[in-house]
Amino acid sequence: MNPVEYIEFYNRVGRINGWDFSKVKCTSEGVEWDFYDKVRKASNKSDLLLDIGTGGGEAVLSIAESALLLVGIDQSSGMIKTALENAAKSRLPNVRFLRMNAEKLDFPENFFNVVSCRHSEFNAEEISKVLVEGGLFLTQQVGENDKANLKAAFGRGQALGIKSGTLKNKYVTELYEAGFTDVQSFEYNATEYYETAEDFIFLLKHTPIIPDFGREESDLSTLQQFIAENKTSQGIRTNSERFMIIARL
């Protein structure tokens, strides 16, 4: 999936679903943190909080009351449309959602106390500009070995063949180069169990884990074989590899 195809895919998901996977029935073993709980605990009631790659705003809206002002941005018009709808339903007065590219943050310098970013690209230099001195940046990203058994079964997939830790090391280096002085990283590789085949198919249709899932004639039979080989009493088994970086300016 090239960048243009990914943007089209992301916009389509944004219009239909946002980034809401709450209906997917999945249990996990080995998850070591809840990202937005970490953001909530890092924020004060007087803080200005920026969320990059906010999607439909579903996750960050749950912690909006932990900050004085929450601003969520996303490059996708479809995602922001869904986020604005979700914000209106929430009736929270301190929330704003804007369409904006993370490569060019159009905010005053030294404006935000906390910046968060989950599963989205970011620009360390841009974040350093909009953060106050001593401000905090938190990001959670998908590790290269995420859904390893699934990508092996299909012979294609997001970051397939790239060494685990490559993206984390890249981001850590960029944050130091952008002026962050305290950069810490954490990782986990959890086991996931999806309750039904429908839950698993929803995941594949609404994420780029397997690019263009369903377009190749063999995809359905490959998925059926994968489910048969990985079905357990707890559900369809795969893994979730995540890393988190917490950096102070």
Could you name the key traits of this structure?
globular; 9-stranded mixed sheet; 249 residues; alpha/beta; single chain; disordered N terminus
Commentary on this structure:
The radius of gyration is 18 Å and the shape is globular. The two termini are 34 Å apart. Strand 5 (112-118), helix 5 and strand 6 form a beta-alpha-beta unit. Strands 1, 2, 3, 4, 5, 6, 7, 8 and 9 form a nine-stranded mixed beta sheet that branches. It has helices at residues 3-16, 35-42, 58-61, 77-90, 124-130, 148-154, 166-177, 197-205, 219-230, and strands at residues 26-29, 48-52, 69-74, 95-99, 112-118, 131-142, 182-194, 231-232, 235-248. The protein has 249 residues and is an alpha/beta fold. Residues 1-19 have low confidence and may be disordered.
**Helix percent band:** 25-40%
Rg over CA atoms, rounded to whole Å, is 18 Å
Overall strand count: 9
Q: Which structural class do you get from the secondary structure elements?
A: alpha/beta
- Write the element-wise H/E pattern from the N-terminal end onward: HEHEHEHEEHEHHEHHEE
Q: Which blocks of ≥5 consecutive residues have pLDDT under 50?
A: 1-19
Which sheet architecture does the biggest sheet show? 9 strands, mixed
Average pLDDT for all residues: 90
Strand content: 25-35%
Shape: globular
Contiguous helical run count: 9
Question: Kindly, what is the distance between the CA atoms of the first and last residues, rounded to a whole number of angstroms?
Answer: 34 Å
Question: In terms of topology, how is this protein built?
Answer:
Layout: H1 3-16, E1 26-29, H2 35-42, E2 48-52, H3 58-61, E3 69-74, H4 77-90, E4 95-99, E5 112-118, H5 124-130, E6 131-142, H6 148-154, H7 166-177, E7 182-194, H8 197-205, H9 219-230, E8 231-232, E9 235-248
Parallel strand pairs: 2-3, 2-5, 3-4, 5-6
Antiparallel strand pairs: 1-7, 6-9, 7-9, 8-9
Helix pairs in contact: 1-4
